[in-house]
Specification:
It contains five helices and six strands; from the N terminus they run ααβαβαββαββ. By secondary structure, it is an alpha+beta fold. A four-stranded mixed beta sheet has the order 1-2-3-4. Strands 5-6 form a two-stranded antiparallel ribbon.
């Protein structure tokens, strides 16, 4: 809900770079569910003024199934043009990973309930 365009536009923080960035992302239809986390998510949820001009934007993409790498690359490319630093985590059934690392490297650190695991395929239990 925090990433819904109407919620973002009604926010008292609409002029802050992280909220403007989230509004830009909400302009596109993405083939996944995504949301705002971190301090921006806290500010949007509580309306407490925790943001400042240099705040970043932490995002989460829910990915119960593997997502197309080219679509994720389009997302990442767009985030790199926005007015603040953006960190996107991708959540799979097995754990979560940093999107920018996965797009740049052959393997990624998957944060799981049993500890971190280096993997080439974050959606596969067999890949290491």
């Amino acid at each position: 809900m925090l990433a819904e365009r109407s919620h973002l536009l009604a926010s008292p923080f609409v002029d802050y770079p992280p909220v403007r960035a989230a509004i830009t992302l909400s302009d596109s239809d993405w083939p996944w569910c995504w949301g705002v986390t971190g301090s921006t998510g806290y500010a949007l949820a509580t309306q407490r003024p925790t943001l400042h001009a240099a705040s970043d934007l932490d995002l989460l993409i829910r990915a119960p199934q593997p997502l197309a790498r080219d679509a994720l690359q389009r997302w990442q490319s767009l985030t790199e043009t926005l007015p603040c630093r953006i960190d996107t985590q991708v959540e799979t059934p097995l754990g979560a990973f940093a999107l920018n690392k996965w797009l740049c490297e052959d393997r990624v650190l998957l944060k799981t309930a049993t500890g971190p695991r280096l993997t080439a395929s974050p959606w596969s239990r067999d890949s290491a």
